[in-house]
Write a structure and sequence with these properties.
By secondary structure, the chain is mainly alpha-helical. Helix content is about 45%, strand content about 5%. Bound molecules: flavin-adenine dinucleotide and iron/sulfur cluster.
């Protein structure tokens, strides 16, 4: 039967046989519904059109307004692998002549996750448990005697160092970058024309495509990463450098989320790099943990917690996201960390995990911006943003809007943490040590204001007892709160 492939199901593992007939749909309505980053729209359309071109006559490629219209033009039933959002899942299940198959593109099935979650009924779904169980089940980084490779399950203590002193960049080979072709040129001219006609609108700056759009490109990017860059991955995975936004990160999320790469092939490539001596165990374990641990966990938690999860607002964060942030207006911002990271998002549609969590998400948390708006912003502005991955990462990880279902405490951090883990503060007009006065760091002061505002609610969480005790020791907290109330959501 013909297989309907969504634009994030583009790899060969979404087909039963290499010659299976395919349906691909390019829907303009999807672009019209949301104001996506220009680079994200380009990447997704480029990947879809490249797949259609590769498949040639094997695919019916329908460019139309809505999916429903495209299906109306078809006179045969189709199968589809479970799509990646609650809305799309409900949509395909509502259609006649569409058979919905289990999801692909993940290493753990819904049944395996459900069996694990059921065994933990009433207890927290701990990532570490899930990750170890998955490694054992798949025999990843496992020795024949059943012990974890390198003698430990977790190398976090060896990883996560501050950036090297006095180095503007990490000493690793450059990441793989694509060369654009005629398909990219046509995508660019279509997007320009649609924007000119007022049919769609974008946020962010255009520029040469920076992420793989085909499987061959994605495999090339994976190869460059495991051969030369993986060795420094774990050590600096939590560090930030103003002039080196990529550091030793893999840049593979966009390819994984488009379905161009299968997670297990990335894991096996990293494991192979360890066996060949290209990367130490701590780096390889750190990377495998991200893919087999975090990525899989986030995917299953998205389904497990249901469509209502996105609406959680445990901290009653009701302030609107300000325009300068929504529009990626980095030039309006003096705070060097936030200005630098926002400019990266504006110009590339990507920053690594720590700027997402500790700069962007942390600022939204501290300022009390509405979780639904922040989730939507991340989804639209990042080249790798999809509903399934954004909702748990933003609602659960960054904003603690779920009250602790995913992260045991809020990832609120002041300027001292940013100063330790980056080189931003040295050339910032603010001082990370100060919470009061003209040069008070908005992250440091914002941290205390956040705790002060939410002290009662957070007081029920024993992991917050130390920060709350420190808060009670601040003689100037009322002045700090007043100062930050005044700063509010203005660009800092
Ligand atoms: C607020 C916030 C929003 C995020 N939004 C997204 C998103 O829209 N799409 C997305 O793929 N990731 C998201 N992440 C997770 C993570 O930041 C990105 O996967 C990562 O930065 C992508 O860059 P990379 O490929 O170089 O990752 P690396 O640092 O090289 O990590 C390797 C891979 O691990 C996976 N991974 C690591 N952490 C996570 C995680 N928390 N959730 C899911 N996968 C993970 C990704 O597939 C990534 O490619 C978000 C994190 C936060 C805190
Ligand atoms: S001083 Fe504060 S605002 Fe400035 S870069 Fe450091 S953390 Fe960011």
């Amino acid at each position: 039967m013909r297989r309907w492939l969504f634009a994030d199901q583009l790899g060969p593992h979404f087909l039963d046989t290499p010659d299976q007939p395919v349906l691909l749909v390019e829907s303009r309505a999807v672009l019209r519904r949301r104001r996506f980053h220009r680079r994200k729209a380009h990447l997704v359309l480029s990947a879809l059109r490249h797949r259609a071109s590769e498949l040639g006559d094997q695919a019916r490629f329908i460019r139309t307004d809505t999916y429903r219209e495209a299906l109306g033009r078809l006179d045969e039933p189709v199968t589809v692998c479970r799509p990646t959002s609650h809305a799309a899942d409900a949509f395909v299940r509502s259609l006649d002549d569409v058979e919905v198959l289990p999801a692909r593109g993940f290493a753990t099935s819904a049944e395996e996750f459900a069996a694990w979650a059921e065994g933990r009924a009433g207890r927290r779904l701990l990532l570490e448990d899930f990750y170890r169980r998955t490694r054992k089940r798949l025999g990843v980084l496992m020795e024949p005697d059943g012990e974890p490779t390198g003698g430990r399950w977790n190398f976090d203590a060896d990883n996560r160092e501050p950036p090297p002193r006095n180095a503007a960049r990490l000493d690793v080979p450059a990441p793989w970058r694509p060369r654009e072709d005629d398909i990219d040129a046509r995508v660019r001219s279509d997007l320009d024309a649609w924007a000119r006609d007022g049919d769609v609108a974008f946020v962010g700056n255009d520029g040469p495509r920076e992420f793989p759009a085909t499987r061959d490109e994605a495999l090339a990017a994976l190869g460059v990463f495991v051969r030369g860059r993986l060795r420094e991955f774990g050590r600096y995975e939590d560090a930030m450098l103003a002039d080196d936004p990529v550091m030793a990160h893999s840049l593979l999320s966009a390819s994984l989320n488009l379905g161009l790469l299968d997670p297990l092939e990335c894991v096996h490539a990293a494991e192979d790099a360890y066996r060949r001596g290209w990367a130490p165990p701590a780096a390889v374990e750190g990377f495998v943990r991200q893919i087999l641990g975090w990525r899989e966990y986030v995917w299953h938690v998205y389904w497990h917690l249901g469509p209502g999860y996105r609406h959680h607002d445990h901290l009653s964060a009701r302030r609107a996201m300000p325009r300068w942030f929504a529009e990626l207006d980095a030039d309006a911002v003096d705070a060097r960390c936030l200005a630098t990271v926002l400019a990266e998002v504006r110009d590339h549609g990507w920053v690594h995990h720590i700027p997402r969590l500790i700069v962007l998400g942390n600022y939204a948390l501290q300022r009390g911006w509405r979780p639904a708006e922040v989730t939507d912003w991340f989804h639209r502005c990042f080249v790798d943003g999809y509903d399934w991955v954004m909702v748990p990462n933003v609602v659960g990880m960054a904003l603690h809007a779920d009250g602790g279902k995913i992260a045991t405490k809020p990832y609120a951090a002041g300027g001292a943490y940013i100063d330790r883990m980056s080189d931003f503060c040295a050339r910032c007009p603010y001082d990370p040590r100060r919470r009061l006065g003209d040069d008070a760091c908005p992250f440091t002061a914002g941290y205390w204001w956040f705790l002060h505002r939410n002290a009662e609610l957070l007081g029920r969480n024993h992991r917050m007892s130390r920060p709350l005790a420190n808060l009670r020791g601040l003689a100037d907290i009322d002045a700090v709160a007043e100062q930050e109330q005044d700063r509010g959501s203005d660009p800092p």
